[in-house]
Amino acid sequence: MNKKEVAEIRKQFTPQRCTVTRIRGCYVDYEKNIKTELKEAFLSLPEEEAFKYFTIFKKTLSGTIGKNLLNMDFPLAEEGEGGCQEFLLRLRDSELKDDGMVSEFYSRIIENYDYPENYYIILIHCAYDVPGRASDGMEMFDASDEVYSYLMCSICPVHLSQPGLHYNTETNAIETIVQDWIVDMPAQGFLFPVFNDRCSDIHSILYYSKNPEQLQENFIAAMFGCSYPLTAKNQKETFQSILSDTLGEECSYETVKTIHETLTEMLEETKDSPDPLVLTRPDVRRLMEVSGVPDEKLAHFDHICSDEEGPEETLVASNLISAKAFQIQTPDVTIKVSPDRADLIETMVVHGRKCLVIPIEDGVEINGIPVHIPGSSPEE
To answer: Are 336 and 327 in contact (CB under 8 A)?
Structure first.
């Protein structure tokens, strides 16, 4: 799914557009015991309660594609009888009316989800009557020819509220707050099947993780049988390792700066695209080539890639660099500059020492205090 398709589904979580048919819930304590369950037709919930759930549902489809929201394909084996995808498909088709299947779903999560405290599992079934689209992109609600039936699960931590004092309007007094268990926004979740090209695609799942560095790999493997992608941090480290291994001692400041500038330009050119910019090995090679990396180093890159085994990892460009900052680090100093002004920093040998040189004009501040730099005027 791309960000445009995700946004279309998120829009359904409002009272006016609501497509949720049924909601099931399961509260689990820190000892993995089920304390209570919820089983309701969603539209029967009180309005205020429904609004709280809408917020949770929207959060489960928030963040960046390729970072917080990950598209994962089911292996073919999982689509056969007894496979993870086959189970989810049967659960979807039951519209959450089969108590036995819902209980099995809860058991699978409780057995494999790694969380030492209390949490709340929310599972919903939705039926979205997909409107047609005119050539100008306008929705035609009377031209629908597909109903997108899907499940969405949100796993929310539950914590005890903070102790303190509050003003009681009824007694007109300051009193101790009664502590209560609060359901947080989801830490993990998923949507199945995905909504690709505005159609149901049962061969993939969209996985959500609030913290992109805590994907719960064992949980993903047990629940879905999917191979999970590299985290955003690991993608960045992989890209850095590729550059270091390819360039070796010729990994110069100017070369890395040019690569950063080229990648920043690529991100800017594709910022309006609903799909994230991803780089395969040939894309990384072209990036280095247009950034001026010598042919012999590109040949070394080809040799490194030919020696690697296993499936090729794709890298999401927005995970590799910060498009908002160009950062230079030494053991003692960190310099950050806007990427479009990276040209202000130069490398130079001054009095026999290698230096980073930054031209200084007016407007210099130290800890918020404007300062005068000697020699900054013609008289000095």
So the answer is: yes
Q: Identify the bridge partners of residue 126 per DSSP, sorted by sequence position.
A: 20, 150
Strand 139-140 and strand 146-160: the pairing is: unpaired
12 near 126, Cβ under 8 Å?
yes
For the segment 347-357, the average pLDDT, to the nearest whole number, is 87
Residues pairing with 34 in the sheet:
28
Start-to-end CA distance of the chain, whole Å, equals 61
**Token digits for 205?**
């799942």
Q: What is the mean pLDDT of the chain?
A: 89
Whether 361 shows a pLDDT value over 80: the answer reads: no
Angle between helices 232-247 and 253-269 (to 10 degrees): 140
325: buried, middle or exposed (CB in 10 Å: 19+, 13-18, 0-12)? exposed
pLDDT at residue 71 above 80?
yes
Q: What is the 3-state secondary structure (H, E, C) of 239-300?
A: HHHHHHHHHHHHCCHHHHHHHHHHHHHHHHHCCCCCCCCEECHHHHHHHHHHCCCCHHHHHH
Q: Has residue 377 got a pLDDT over 60?
A: no
The residue with tokens 């086959």 is: 86
The whole-angstrom distance between residue 88's C-alpha and the CA centroid of its chain comes to 23
CA distances from 47 to 123, 158, 267, 349 (A): 19, 22, 42, 69
Tokens (6 digits) for 10: 């998120």
Place of tokens 């719960």: 216
d(CA 314, CA 312): 6
Cα atoms found within 13 Å of the Cα of residue 68, Cβ hemisphere only: 14
258-289 pLDDT, tens digit each: 888 889 889 989 988 989 999 998 999 999 99
Report the C-alpha gap between 16 and 18 in whole angstroms.
6
d(CA 315, CA 278): 5
Count Cβ atoms below 10 Å from residue 156 Cβ, excluding itself. 23
Would you say 50 and 19 are in contact if contact means Cβ atoms under 8 Å apart?
Answer: no
Which of 270, 260, 269 lies closest to 337, judged by CA? 260
Contacts of 363 (CB under 8 A, 6+ apart): 370
